[in-house]
Amino acid sequence: MYPTTLAVIALTFSNYVLQPIFPNCLPPYMATRMLSTTCLLFLTWVNCSSVRWATRIQDVFTVGKLLALGLIIVVGLVQICQGHYEGLKPQVAFEFSRSPSVGQIALAFLQASFAFSGWNFLNYVTEEVVDPRRNLPRAIYISIPLVTFVYTLTNIAYFSSMSPEELLSSNAVAVTFGEKLLGMFSSVMPISVALSTFGGINGYLFTSSRLCFSGAREGHLPSLLAMIHFKNCTPIPALLVCCTATIVILCIGETHNLINYVSFINYLSYGVTIAGLMYYRWKKPNLNRPIKVNLMVPISYLLFWAFLLGFSLYSEPVVCGVGLVIMLTGVPVYFLGVHWKDKPKCIYDFIESATHVGQKLCYVVFPQIDPAEEKLHTEWIDKAES
């Protein structure tokens, strides 16, 4: 899921950077892929070198992203105050060339949800958050309403000066918006969006590599991915795997199809995960839960999830079916790599030698486990089992 999302953001970055150079046509295929790959390699190097550098880049580019969106919102509100809001009138905004089906509406929700697909990423870096029990819920409560508010106002601003047809035909909406309303300052838009997506790539690399790292530590991925650099304490093998997978997907996929695939897989996995959490609430009520939420939250989500995926599968069976097949390829990998314990000695020898080679190339070792945390984890398990 995450290399695919990274590929989409990287392609968006390269499209916005190259759009001013190719104003009357789409940027060349090879140019977008090469620029996207260069950006990915650079940010992978930054994340491998220093956690502090990666977080500083994230802070700076998040501020830049909000400033760019703030400029779009202000210009759009000025347009509305001047009476330019034809595109926002219900008879225009909700005019359809053909009657939409329920399945198409569900698919529209699925595609639009891609913009919010990072809502759960804070959970992947809890080990690197100061006082996560207090700061993690606070960050989620602040960020999700803020992102929703900003995205809504940004789209209202777009419709204040662009028709639905112009939005659909534009390869870079913010660039088209800037050309129409900012005049000589229109170059601010592609630069701002490029900086925004640059920060997005950095954030996805940072969090998805931690997911890889955690999975390896639990025994679901090769142990090499659970190792960190002996000096910089960065998960270099996990970062390299995420970067490599993203570059492969960049070369074989188109943006629109990638969004459909990843949105379907995202929501399928989210729903199954939340259903699993509810199952544990029922079967293991004494399990330690540092952060609790009202049961109505997961129940409401599951109802929406069932509607969304059911009608999306009905509307786009091929796209959703391919996404499901991609996800199911993990099943044989799980049985061969994790479930099958009695592998031949030659396989274990190969894994061990490959791990040693990877350690020498990346200068990585297993992180030291805090004895206090290990004892606390054991107590949680004992309490749940009792």
Automatic annotation (TrEMBL):
Topology term for the membrane: Multi-pass membrane protein
Gene Ontology annotations of biological process type: D-alanine transmembrane transport; D-serine transmembrane transport
Cell compartment(s), UniProt: Membrane
Domain of life: Eukaryota
GO cellular component, one term: membrane
Cross-referenced InterPro entries: AA/rel_permease1, AminoAcid_Transporter
Key words, A-Z: Membrane, Transmembrane, Transmembrane helix
Single annotated GO MF: L-amino acid transmembrane transporter activity
TM annotation in the entry: 33-54, 66-85, 105-126, 138-161, 181-207, 236-255, 261-281, 293-315, 321-340
Name of the featured protein: Asc-type amino acid transporter 1
Annotated source species: Albula goreensis
